[in-house]
Design goal:
mainly alpha, 112 residues, 3 helices, 58% helix
């Protein structure tokens, strides 16, 4: 700062303690720092997406079979809703796959 003079502050001593701080057995109301988020690896996330896509694709067929057999629990509206959900799932899976491929291409273009 001024001709090599750097002021030294004891910031920890200047912190005012409030009711949010913990006392004894009472946990602190302040948010703790997140050291490492617990996330699954890429392979398990993608395999879970594929399994969910497979289940959502099979659901309309199963409901349609039940409706054709005359089950009272299944209505044609349920079949149409399941078909719409399957269509949306396919669109999301296609978009995610395209984004993953684009990200891979960008990573491969990075020069070291």
């Amino acid at each position: 700062m001024f001709n090599g003079f750097y002021p030294r502050y004891d910031l920890e001593a200047r912190i005012q303690h409030t009711k949010l701080d913990s006392w004894g057995d009472v946990p602190s109301a302040r948010m703790n720092r997140v050291e490492e988020p617990s996330t699954a690896n890429f392979q398990s996330v993608m395999s879970g997406l594929v399994e969910n896509l497979n289940t959502s694709m099979n659901a309309p067929d199963n409901l349609l079979k039940d409706a054709m057999m005359g089950s009272e629990n299944v209505d044609i509206h349920d079949v149409m809703v399941a078909i719409s959900k399957a269509e949306i799932s396919v669109n999301v899976a296609t978009t995610v796959t395209g984004k993953v491929i684009q990200a891979y291409d960008k990573i491969m273009q990075i020069q070291i």
